[in-house]
Design a protein that fits this description.
Strand order of the largest sheet: 7-4-8-12-9-11-10
CATH topology of the largest domain: Aminopeptidase
Distance between the termini: 37 Å
Radius of gyration: 21 Å
Oligomer: single chain
Number of strands: 14
Largest sheet: 7 strands, mixed
Number of helices: 10
Shape: globular
CATH architecture of the largest domain: 3-Layer(aba) Sandwich
Number of domains: 2
Strand content: 15-25%
Helix content: 25-40%
Structural class: alpha/beta
Length: 363
């Protein structure tokens, strides 16, 4: 980009030796016309709707729920399946979906329209790995940077010409890169989301080896904090500008902060100690729970997106609660009388969304 006094010129290359793709003009101090409205409706827009009532406090709000990952028979392929000795196996895609269904029901009871991006442990994308051989070969040769971070960890010990390395690239292209974009395209074509909630469960690096962590922490992500390596990709530059011009940060930050507060009340867990780092940035002064990070789901979905990553799946008490499944009331889990962790998760997210939009209504 070239920044001028009254505009920003956006180019397709770093050299800026061709015509700009677009020129974004700065608004004068007293604009002669209203700026283009965002692609979503803000809390203020929804507040102004006459049919919003105290009985249905989220009436008018349209929420897309994205249970991250796939799960089921795809869990191993997407590197989201871990067997913890003495406990059992966790497929993250499966437990994300349980929370997604519960959250859908809770938000609908509050009056929101909800689009559950997936309701089964199968990909949205109608493509299989055997169809991706040519694409995977091209990506490995020319664009390996678009592969997920887990590709490097899974292939570090493999020769460059290993057939296994190519197969892993096919699997991750399907379950991560292409599947994420397919889900965003599905929502874009089917539903105008005012807010997208991406449901995940966190874990420490020791989880990959089935090892436990002694404590729990919570973290919540909003869009931002691109690295220089990521910005070498034209697709990522495009999404950065899309999000920037759609002004998603205020809504994302308010909703993420409200959800984080509800989880802190329910669990008492501190935040993940990331702060300002090589790929994260604090976005709310004094609030370490909400970070900007360039995650695929944050980037690819239109409008405001909040990624929720509470709990460490590889913490003993959390693991026991997850493996206990969803259930009504309370049970003795890990020596304590506890409600379902899935209900707790969905309740906190629903309450946070309700609070954020209620504040917008009363302010």
């Amino acid at each position: 980009m070239r920044i001028r006094e009254d505009s920003v010129e956006v180019y397709s290359t770093v050299k800026k030796d061709n015509q700009p793709l677009v020129v974004v003009h700065f608004a004068p101090s007293e604009p002669a016309r209203q700026p283009r409205p965002p692609s979503y409706r803000t809390p203020r827009d929804i507040r102004a709707m006459s049919f919003v009532t105290t009985e249905l406090p989220l009436a008018g709000l349209q929420v897309a729920i994205e249970p991250a990952d796939i799960g089921g028979r795809w869990a191993r392929m997407e590197d989201r399946s871990v067997d913890f000795p003495g406990y059992g196996r966790i497929n993250e895609g499966d437990i994300n979906l349980v929370v997604g269904r519960l959250l859908r029901d809770k938000l609908q009871k509050l009056g929101a329209r909800v689009f559950l991006v997936r309701d089964q442990t199968e990909p949205v994308l109608a493509v299989r790995t055997e169809q991706l051989r040519g694409l995977a070969m091209d990506v490995l040769k020319n664009r390996s940077e678009i592969l997920p971070e887990s590709f490097q960890s899974q292939t570090a010990s493999l020769p460059l010409d290993s057939p296994r390395r190519l197969h892993i690239a096919e699997e991750l292209l399907l379950t991560k890169t292409l599947e994420t974009r397919a889900r965003a395209a599905l929502v874009r074509a089917s539903f105008r989301a005012d807010l997208t909630i991406v449901l995940q469960h966190n874990a420490t690096p020791a989880s990959c080896e089935g090892r436990l962590n002694p404590i729990n922490r919570n973290i919540f992500f909003v869009h931002g904090a691109y690295t220089s390596i990521e910005l070498r990709q034209s697709e990522q530059r495009f999404r950065l500008l899309t999000k920037l011009l759609d002004d998603v940060t205020p809504v994302e930050s308010e909703v993420a902060a409200a959800i984080a507060a509800r989880f802190k009340d329910a669990t008492g867990y501190p935040s993940v100690l990331s702060g300002n780092s090589g790929n994260t940035r604090l976005v709310i002064p004094g609030n370490p729970y909400v970070l900007a990070r360039n995650l695929a789901f944050n980037r690819e979905h239109d409008g405001p997106v909040v990624v929720t990553e509470p709990y460490f799946m590889n913490q003993a008490e959390t693991l026991a609660r997850l493996l206990a499944g969803d259930y009504p009331g309370k049970r003795i889990i890990a020596g304590k009388l506890q409600s379902s962790i899935f209900q707790e998760y969905a309740n906190c997210v629903a309450a946070g969304i309700h609070e954020a939009y209620e504040q917008a209504r009363t302010n």
